[in-house]
Amino acid sequence: MAKVIVVTSGKGGVGKTTSTAALGAALAQRNEKTVVVDFDVGLRNLDLVMGAERRVVYDLVNVIQGDAKLPQALIRDKRLETLFLLPASQTRDKDSLTPEGVEKVMGELKKHFDWIICDSPAGIERGATLAMRHADIAVIVTNPEVSSVRDSDRIIGLLDAKTERAERGERVEKHLLLTRYDQVRAERGDMLKVDDVLEILSIPLVGIVPESTDVLKASNLGAPVTLADSRSAPALAYLDAARRIAGETVPMTIPGEKRGFLGKLFGRRAA
Amino acid sequence: MSIFRFFSKQTSAPTARERLQVLLAHERASVGHSDLVAKLREEILAVIAKHVQVDGDKVTVKMDRGENVSTLEVDIEIPLNAVRAA
């Protein structure tokens, strides 16, 4: 049975696209057929983060408008043969996404894939509501920072009201993915802690991704974080998060917490 | 807990946490229907305008959303000759 995941946040720049690419690659590495779909029409970037920007011929809007067939628009990843990308249109505006069109494309994707991961645009307008519309699972990407937490709260409200599942009286499975987390600053009291954010948003935690230079490095290279260096701290966090999404029980670790007594007393290792 | 924290000055995360808790309590309560305090402000002003000619510049409205109680402070200057003939 295909599962539809929306990666969403409300606020921009918190790591939706990075997380979509990393989780998509991590799920595909489990040998499950995965497609990442960019819903950010007009400002596509998932192609760039996936390293497929030079291979885009057709996009989501072309498929919706019947200019291309779905298999023509899907781009197979060069590193993982179970991973595909459906890019967004760069030239059209967001109004070219229609509810009927998106429903048709999602229905077709469900026949061919195990996981469909929708990368939502920022905001709460059409692109964002259509990206979450068909979701079974929502990954809410949040930074430990006041405006991001507030916007996530708003998005959680929308997930409970404007999705197909909500309208059928069912629930979208919601997961909090905390990104750009800095354990040292949180311990010092200058950043919201994991427990603070969890208590405020009261949804279950699926992963804690540390602030790391590896994320920028991966996007420079055009590789999902989990493929660029699968042993880096953010990659490990995303790989664990993907296993949890797939239903495995994996103990939660807070990145950067493995310091002993001496480490705590005498300064902190730069991660 | 680090021994540094003991000596360090006030931290900012607890403030962030408190501000969010208060703000979200209000935003969650006002989903679907508009904010009660904002509505009260508008209606109170409308009632006063019925009887008194209110000069927009002479009206100060202050709102403070607190954890358990919110306060609405409406300060209106009413000149002697402003009373409308009713």
TrEMBL record, chain A:
Tree of life domain: Bacteria
The UniProt record lists the keyword ATP-binding: yes
Keyword Cell cycle set for record: yes
Binding-site positions, ATP: 11-18
The CobQ/CobB/MinD/ParA nucleotide binding domain, residue ranges: 5-224
UniProt keyword terms in alphabetical order: ATP-binding, Cell cycle, Cell division, Nucleotide-binding, Plasmid, Septation
Gene3D superfamilies: P-loop containing nucleotide triphosphate hydrolases
Annotated GO MF terms: ATP binding; ATP hydrolysis activity
Short name of one Pfam family: CbiA
One GO cellular component term: cytoplasmic side of plasma membrane
GO biological process, one term: negative regulation of cell division
Similarity annotation: Belongs to the ParA family. MinD subfamily.
Complex and partners: Interacts with MinC and FtsZ.
Biological role: ATPase required for the correct placement of the division site. Cell division inhibitors MinC and MinD act in concert to form an inhibitor capable of blocking formation of the polar Z ring septums. Rapidly oscillates between the poles of the cell to destabilize FtsZ filaments that have formed before they mature into polar Z rings.
UniProt-recorded name of the protein: Septum site-determining protein MinD
TrEMBL record, chain B:
Keyword RNA-binding: no
Keywords, comma-separated and alphabetical: Cell cycle, Cell division
Matching SUPFAM superfamilies: Cell division protein MinE topological specificity domain
Function: Prevents the cell division inhibition by proteins MinC and MinD at internal division sites while permitting inhibition at polar sites. This ensures cell division at the proper site by restricting the formation of a division septum at the midpoint of the long axis of the cell.
Gene Ontology biological process terms from the UniProt entry: cell division; regulation of division septum assembly
Family per similarity comment: Belongs to the MinE family.
Protein's UniProt keywords contain Membrane: no
Gene: minE
Protein name according to UniProt: Cell division topological specificity factor
Classification via InterPro entries: MinE, MinE_sf
One Pfam family from the record: MinE
